Amino acid sequence: MSQTVAAGAAHVAHAHHEELGFWRTYIFSTDHKMIGRQFLFMGLLMLIIGGLLAMMMRWQLAWPETAVPGLSAIPEPYMYEGIIPPQTYNALFTMHATIMIFFVVMPIMVGCYGNFLIPLMIGTRDMAFPLLNMLSFWVGAVAGVIMLASFLVPGGPAAAGWTGYATLSARAAYTGVDLGQDLWIISLLVLGISSLMGSINYITTIVNMRAPGMTYFRMPLTVWSLFITAILLLLALPVLTAALAMLLFDRTLGTSFFLPQGGGQPLLWQHMFWFFGHPEVYILVLPAMGVTSDLLSTFSRKPIFGYHAMAFSMIAIAFLSWIVWGHHMFVSGMNPLLGTAFMMTTMVIAVPSAIKVFNWLGTLWGGSIRLTSPMLFALGFVSNFLIGGLSGIFMASTPVDIFIHDTYYIVAHFHYVVAGIIFALFAAVYYWFPKMFSRMMSEPLGKIHFVLTYIFFNLTFFPMHFLGVGGHMRRIYNPMQYEFIQPLQDWNVFITVSALLLGLSQLPFLINFFWSLFAGKRAERNPWQANTLEWTAPTPPPHGNFEVQPTVYRGPYEYSSPEVKEDWLPQDKPLAKTAARAH
Amino acid sequence: MMRWLPEDVSTYGHEIDSLFFLIYYITAATFILVTVLMVLFLVMYRERPGRRATYSHGNTTLEIIWTIIPAAILIVLSFMSVNTWAKLKNTVPPSDFAIQVTAKQFNWGIAYPGADGKLGTEDDVKFDNDVHVPVNKVVHVHLGSEDVIHSFFIPNLRFKQDMVPGRTVTGWFEATKPGRYELPCAELCGFGHSGMKGWLHVHSAEDYAKWAAENLAAKQQ
User: Which of A252, A489, A544, A575 has a 20 to 30 Å separation from A117 between CA atoms?
Assistant: First the structure.
């Protein structure tokens, strides 16, 4: 029973726990590793749904108001013999963004890897609150079901954008969506509870349950990033929850928080939403940065360049992320003086991001680089983050933002950052698959997957900069309605073809993932010759994770250390010298 | 990239465009530098038998350098942007020409002052979607909305301002070339958002006088 595990001694836990039945092992598990896998499968399923929604949008943008192949069965008024009407188009981009942000990147990067890795990497038996952990997943799953259910209600799902700007979102008459928008709000409220439970768990676990010797500055940067992310989640989500509750009251109880007719302020929604929303961007990207740091060091066989700078730059990003939200609102009608202040803070937050990129380069310098699939994807993340970070400087400059705000330039920028996270996500899947599923994924298939994904990702998202520079607005249903956009239509076709190919490029991954799950080569304990503690646990790690409570003697990045013959030195390996010093 | 920016016909657009290109050159140079180094390192330091990676935890001098240089560049960019922003937003040039635009799903409601010369009174002359202004004259636009947030976007004038229900935001522009310029809504405003657009007609002084005589003066009787 889980209570046995929770109450049991930290070590040799697997020796005295009872066999659990199917339900307690696979469905209502309190084991952090199983919960991690559950989050992974939920995220991958939602990734497929979110991706298909994007394909439908791209079809409409390239070949407006023509029938999408294979979708003629969807009834009116959602589709007209395969043709997407404007209302459905608005629902498509709203749900694409909502699903990708809240039900793909967060469940996988934070839910799956936070759960799976934190206890293993800090050398403990499980999360601090295993039952809360189980609830966190199942409450999150309920939120997912509510979100998907909104596709099936009369009027269709939410269509006010993922940002849900009031007043558009505050009255059903403005969008024509009634129940769908309510379900969108309720789903995110429920998801907030799930994330809150998860973040409390992560913070408590990291503060209290680190193995002997695992000081804060011996933690892998993945754990650092998840720690900071959990703190951001804990502080940011209540603001979103408050805003969503107010919006729901405006819609259903007749209040007027955001409706000017009753004395409310539409801009209040934007302030609240982005006060949550900007930390949210870092909630999404910080774990990707942490994973990338670990992988670049491991596969360069070299310590991370500037470990303390990497940790402190993430802390700096976390602090600054609270005072940059106004850069989403430069043309909103907010006082222009505020615009000036927010531009300054936004320029400042670019500095720690730049430090990270340069330190990643420094890590590669002088290394002995192994281009494995996870390493290639980690490098892909760096390359995309570089472009996304640099393109962000344009919109940080208030005068330039006047022109590119709400254009495809913004769409290009945030896809390089947020959709770029998918590279770190794949890197994590390839890297930790052996520990999660006890088998290796195929390297050749992984490399094919990387090359195709990298090429078509860039062919899809880079030309969006050109559209944005031409003034092409985002969230428009039919670009051909505008004379000044018509000359850019060839790019829309190009982007759509690339996007469809980007979608197809995920087939090698799906094949690889499921084939390896059942028939991959059996994984050894430490296939990548890595230093961090998860690789000292058996494969698969049993309940309680470690055979013997590990003691940590050093930081996580002692690759190619002159102290040993091999080019790696696990955190828990006593050396004659260091062991003596530790006592 | 240069040819893709729409033609600029405003008095301040060149300042926005030159900031855009300045940032473009800086970021392009950074992108090339980092990418070339990354590819170079991947080739130079690929795994080879018998060679061990350099055991180094970093270099404080280097880290200080690559913190200070981006910080300095960003501070300079900030100050340059602040100047232009202040010119656009904080110092509105005076003008005797003002119109009011009130958005509603999915139209621009344009109002010109009537015989009393004031906006917002009974005798305002109203049009849908088409804005007529004289060239080389500062135009004040009072922007508001009746229902949801819209955004008044004139790409050729580098003008964009959200229109928020419950408040009026005043913007200004001065067109420098007669012509007909598209005027789309840039903020999602519902199922008819796409296609919500009008036209800005910039006339020479004589042409504008003629248009005003036919359309404004005539309706004022």
Answer: A575
